[in-house]
Amino acid sequence: MMNELYILGELMENSKTAYRLRQSMQVSLGRHRKISFGVIYPLFERLEKEGYITLKVQGDDKRSTKLAAITKKGEVRFLELMYAPVPEGAHTDDIFQIKLDSMQHLPLTDQQGLLDQYMNEQIAIVNDCQTELEHLKKHEHKDHWYAAQKMQLRLRQAQVTEQWIQGFKVALEKNGGFQSND
Protein backbone atom coordinates (compact mmCIF):
# COMPACT_ATOMS: atom_id res chain seq x y z
CA MET A 1 0.00 0.00 0.00
CA MET A 2 2.70 2.46 1.02
CA ASN A 3 4.74 2.44 -2.20
CA GLU A 4 1.65 2.37 -4.41
CA LEU A 5 0.12 5.31 -2.55
CA TYR A 6 3.34 7.29 -2.79
CA ILE A 7 3.74 6.74 -6.52
CA LEU A 8 0.11 7.50 -7.35
CA GLY A 9 0.18 10.58 -5.11
CA GLU A 10 3.28 11.93 -6.82
CA LEU A 11 1.79 11.25 -10.24
CA MET A 12 -1.30 13.26 -9.27
CA GLU A 13 1.00 16.28 -9.60
CA ASN A 14 2.66 15.42 -12.92
CA SER A 15 4.36 12.63 -14.85
CA LYS A 16 7.62 11.34 -13.45
CA THR A 17 10.33 8.79 -14.14
CA ALA A 18 11.14 5.90 -11.81
CA TYR A 19 14.44 7.60 -11.00
CA ARG A 20 12.70 10.81 -9.89
CA LEU A 21 10.08 8.90 -7.87
CA ARG A 22 12.76 6.87 -6.12
CA GLN A 23 14.71 10.02 -5.25
CA SER A 24 11.71 11.90 -3.89
CA MET A 25 10.48 8.88 -1.92
CA GLN A 26 13.84 8.49 -0.20
CA VAL A 27 13.83 12.16 0.77
CA SER A 28 10.21 12.07 1.90
CA LEU A 29 10.63 8.99 4.09
CA GLY A 30 14.09 9.82 5.39
CA ARG A 31 17.56 9.88 4.00
CA HIS A 32 18.45 6.44 5.34
CA ARG A 33 15.45 4.76 3.72
CA LYS A 34 16.74 2.99 0.66
CA ILE A 35 14.14 2.45 -2.04
CA SER A 36 15.49 0.16 -4.75
CA PHE A 37 14.62 0.07 -8.41
CA GLY A 38 13.87 -3.61 -7.69
CA VAL A 39 10.81 -2.27 -5.84
CA ILE A 40 9.91 0.58 -8.18
CA TYR A 41 10.05 -1.16 -11.59
CA PRO A 42 7.90 -4.19 -10.69
CA LEU A 43 5.40 -1.81 -9.09
CA PHE A 44 5.38 0.31 -12.26
CA GLU A 45 4.63 -2.82 -14.29
CA ARG A 46 1.83 -3.89 -11.96
CA LEU A 47 0.28 -0.42 -11.88
CA GLU A 48 0.41 -0.26 -15.67
CA LYS A 49 -1.10 -3.74 -16.01
CA GLU A 50 -3.95 -2.74 -13.66
CA GLY A 51 -4.58 0.41 -15.70
CA TYR A 52 -3.57 2.87 -12.95
CA ILE A 53 -0.67 4.39 -14.89
CA THR A 54 0.68 4.61 -18.40
CA LEU A 55 4.37 4.24 -19.20
CA LYS A 56 5.82 6.11 -22.16
CA VAL A 57 9.36 5.41 -23.31
CA GLN A 58 11.46 8.54 -23.73
CA GLY A 59 14.55 8.35 -25.91
CA ASP A 60 15.57 5.64 -28.30
CA ASP A 61 19.03 4.69 -27.14
CA LYS A 62 20.40 2.56 -24.30
CA ARG A 63 19.59 5.31 -21.80
CA SER A 64 15.89 5.54 -22.60
CA THR A 65 13.61 6.08 -19.63
CA LYS A 66 9.96 5.44 -18.94
CA LEU A 67 7.78 8.35 -17.97
CA ALA A 68 4.85 7.34 -15.78
CA ALA A 69 1.53 9.19 -15.88
CA ILE A 70 -1.58 8.52 -13.81
CA THR A 71 -4.84 7.50 -15.50
CA LYS A 72 -8.41 8.28 -14.42
CA LYS A 73 -8.57 4.75 -12.97
CA GLY A 74 -5.32 5.50 -11.13
CA GLU A 75 -6.83 8.68 -9.67
CA VAL A 76 -9.75 6.61 -8.33
CA ARG A 77 -7.29 4.09 -6.85
CA PHE A 78 -5.28 6.93 -5.29
CA LEU A 79 -8.39 8.23 -3.53
CA GLU A 80 -9.29 4.70 -2.34
CA LEU A 81 -5.84 4.44 -0.74
CA MET A 82 -6.07 7.93 0.75
CA TYR A 83 -9.39 7.06 2.42
CA ALA A 84 -8.26 3.60 3.56
CA PRO A 85 -7.50 3.36 7.29
CA VAL A 86 -3.82 3.54 8.16
CA PRO A 87 -2.81 0.08 9.37
CA GLU A 88 -0.94 -0.22 12.64
CA GLY A 89 2.53 -1.58 12.17
CA ALA A 90 6.10 -0.78 11.34
CA HIS A 91 5.12 1.59 8.51
CA THR A 92 2.29 3.46 10.24
CA ASP A 93 4.17 6.74 10.44
CA ASP A 94 5.50 6.38 6.88
CA ILE A 95 1.96 5.95 5.55
CA PHE A 96 0.79 9.01 7.49
CA GLN A 97 3.72 10.98 6.06
CA ILE A 98 2.79 9.93 2.52
CA LYS A 99 -0.87 10.79 3.07
CA LEU A 100 0.06 14.18 4.51
CA ASP A 101 2.23 14.82 1.45
CA SER A 102 -0.72 14.15 -0.89
CA MET A 103 -3.67 15.42 1.14
CA GLN A 104 -4.12 18.52 -1.01
CA HIS A 105 -6.10 16.29 -3.38
CA LEU A 106 -8.78 15.78 -0.72
CA PRO A 107 -11.62 18.13 0.27
CA LEU A 108 -10.72 20.41 3.17
CA THR A 109 -12.92 18.52 5.66
CA ASP A 110 -11.15 15.27 4.75
CA GLN A 111 -7.76 16.95 5.16
CA GLN A 112 -8.85 17.96 8.67
CA GLY A 113 -9.99 14.38 9.30
CA LEU A 114 -6.62 13.01 8.24
CA LEU A 115 -4.90 15.43 10.62
CA ASP A 116 -7.26 14.27 13.39
CA GLN A 117 -6.26 10.65 12.72
CA TYR A 118 -2.59 11.59 12.86
CA MET A 119 -3.20 13.51 16.08
CA ASN A 120 -4.83 10.42 17.63
CA GLU A 121 -1.74 8.42 16.69
CA GLN A 122 0.49 10.99 18.41
CA ILE A 123 -1.72 11.06 21.51
CA ALA A 124 -1.39 7.27 21.75
CA ILE A 125 2.39 7.55 21.47
CA VAL A 126 2.49 10.22 24.19
CA ASN A 127 0.35 8.05 26.48
CA ASP A 128 2.51 4.98 25.83
CA CYS A 129 5.70 6.95 26.52
CA GLN A 130 4.35 8.45 29.73
CA THR A 131 3.25 5.03 30.98
CA GLU A 132 6.66 3.55 30.22
CA LEU A 133 8.47 6.47 31.86
CA GLU A 134 6.42 5.99 35.03
CA HIS A 135 7.27 2.30 35.04
CA LEU A 136 10.99 3.00 34.55
CA LYS A 137 10.97 5.58 37.34
CA LYS A 138 9.43 3.10 39.80
CA HIS A 139 12.13 0.54 39.03
CA GLU A 140 15.27 2.66 38.99
CA HIS A 141 18.27 0.96 37.48
CA LYS A 142 21.24 2.10 35.39
CA ASP A 143 19.78 0.54 32.22
CA HIS A 144 16.42 2.13 32.94
CA TRP A 145 17.98 5.57 33.08
CA TYR A 146 19.25 5.14 29.52
CA ALA A 147 15.92 3.72 28.37
CA ALA A 148 14.16 6.70 29.96
CA GLN A 149 16.38 9.12 28.02
CA LYS A 150 15.38 7.45 24.76
CA MET A 151 11.73 7.43 25.84
CA GLN A 152 11.95 11.18 26.57
CA LEU A 153 13.14 11.72 23.02
CA ARG A 154 10.20 9.76 21.60
CA LEU A 155 7.79 11.62 23.89
CA ARG A 156 9.11 15.02 22.78
CA GLN A 157 8.96 14.03 19.11
CA ALA A 158 5.29 13.12 19.48
CA GLN A 159 4.56 16.32 21.41
CA VAL A 160 6.24 18.45 18.72
CA THR A 161 4.21 16.60 16.08
CA GLU A 162 1.03 17.35 18.05
CA GLN A 163 1.92 21.05 18.06
CA TRP A 164 2.64 20.95 14.34
CA ILE A 165 -0.73 19.29 13.64
CA GLN A 166 -2.56 21.93 15.70
CA GLY A 167 -0.80 24.74 13.82
CA PHE A 168 -1.46 23.13 10.46
CA LYS A 169 -5.17 22.73 11.27
CA VAL A 170 -5.39 26.41 12.24
CA ALA A 171 -3.69 27.42 8.98
CA LEU A 172 -6.08 25.25 6.95
CA GLU A 173 -9.11 26.73 8.71
CA LYS A 174 -7.80 30.27 8.32
CA ASN A 175 -6.84 29.93 4.67
CA GLY A 176 -9.43 27.42 3.50
CA GLY A 177 -6.62 25.31 2.11
CA PHE A 178 -3.52 26.20 0.14
CA GLN A 179 -2.70 29.85 -0.25
CA SER A 180 0.33 31.06 -2.19
CA ASN A 181 2.79 33.29 -0.35
CA ASP A 182 2.99 35.60 -3.39
From TrEMBL:
Residues 7-77 form the Transcription regulator PadR N-terminal domain. Pfam families: PadR. SUPFAM superfamilies: Winged helix' DNA-binding domain. Gene3D superfamilies: Winged helix-like DNA-binding domain superfamily/Winged helix DNA-binding domain. It comes from the Bacteria. This is PadR family transcriptional regulator. It comes from Furfurilactobacillus milii. The lineage of its organism: Bacteria, Bacillati, Bacillota, Bacilli, Lactobacillales.
